[in-house]
Amino acid sequence: RSLEMDLRSADIASQFEAHFQPILSVQSGILCGFEALMRWRHPSRGMVSPMEFIPIAEETGQIDRLGRWMLHEACRQAASWPDPLMVAINVSPVQFRSGGLLEVIEDALRLSGLAPERLEIEITESVILDDSAANLALLRQLRERGVRIALDDFGTGYSSLHYLKQFPFNRLKIDRSFVREIDNSPESLAIVRAIIGLGASLGIDTTAEGVETAAQLERLRAEQCGELQGFLFSPPVASENVAGIIGAYF
Ligand code: G
Ligand code: G
Ligand code: MN
Ligand code: NA
């Protein structure tokens, strides 16, 4: 059987899980919230990476039901965390294309009772490239409802700066390829510094992704980066381990 067939017939609620990676303030070390990351606990293959199943789900139309489940599940769990901890959820460009995304997000908020201000939607630049007018309108409607919008993998795209003019993002997530080299590549350090400065002058929060070493943390602190996530603090964890992280860092 192919992964595609398994995905099509999978009972999502019993095979899929939302895992959560903590996002912390660089200056204070206090927990700000979590990024939700999907996991597939396949009955015979074991854990299948989203790098494998998300592209298949996008190509076969399964991303809509997977993505809807994820929005509901992650909002439901986040509603049980102490206020104002937030949850960041990745949304695929294909979910924008399919229509109905605004209603799906509104339903997830209403059913969970999560305040819209505690939800952040992470998109990549392809969302804006795809269908500029319609997707930008949808992003604006989400912002009007109080939902925050983050631009993921910032710096890796074709014309990242152009998007900042088109839409008032709440957050830039500095791609981990720059963070990884911050201590041994003057170019990477210069790019990270420029993104943080850009965020500061535009009033946009900045999160460094993929922080793995104390030296990277010290550097990001010196550069006044806002938030960070990475293996230095924690990989994505299953939901039963979230309370322990909240207890330790919040
Ligand atoms: O969790 P991990 O680092 O293995 O994720 C690999 C990739 O899968 C990342 O690019 C991440 O954004 C993506 N991903 C993880 N969970 C989701 C999800 O719920 N929806 C979408 N669209 N992408 C996800
Ligand atoms: O594309 P996106 O930024 O959503 O992807 C998040 C992915 O990054 C997840 O798959 C997560 O497992 C991974 N990740 C999180 N922290 C680290 C880290 O410190 N190092 C590396 N290499 N990957 C990380
Ligand atoms: Mn992300
Ligand atoms: Na990213």
TrEMBL record:
Top-level division of the source organism's lineage: Bacteria
All copies of domain EAL, residue ranges: 1-250
Protein name: EAL domain-containing protein
Residue window of the full protein shown: 626 to 875 of 882
